[in-house]
Fold:
Amino acid sequence: SGAVSTTGTLAAGNYTATGTTSDVNGDSGTFTFTLTVSPGVISMNQIHSGTVTTVNSVHFVTNLRVTHNFGTVVFIQTSGSTHLNVRTSGRVATTGSLAAGTYTATGTTIDAKGDRGVFTFTLKVTPVKQAITVKFAVGSALLSASAKASLAQYALQLRGSMVTVTGFSSPGVSVSSARAQAVGIYLKSIDSSLRIVLIKGGVSPMGPSATAVAMD
Structure:
């Protein structure tokens, strides 16, 4: 009938079909058909950047995703920061603890059919708040709702860090150890990877309080 069709998904390239023709009267001829398949363009999907604190930067991992590809995509990092490593699978990881700043990795992608694309990934590393002071009611070692909220936000910056917690009390009120313990337990409940060291600080001009200091 002269209908031409492909037998499946084709890689980029030129494909040719040749043959003969004839009609009912015995007339004959030849034909040649050439199909040019151009490579598609692979596009980045969703993940183009990330943000992490200096303390958590050593643990940073994410995966790049693409669209308009056929089958497995190979990622090839060609330039950018040596502190960001992009594997052929698209897995992005830091090479160690990073200072505050912006780090970028760029490269190319190719799939099983020869479709190609480019990728750029940027990681912003922000400084972490190293210390926090929590206030208590006079004579109490109970954490208020606002104190818990502040500690929760603080803990999420500190994955895997060592945190020293020092409790203080007003003159004549011996609850410094209980305050340090309350803060330590709550931080640990938010992130179990934190390493908590409790210190009894005694009486302080700051009054009823506890101070948590994070160290890498």
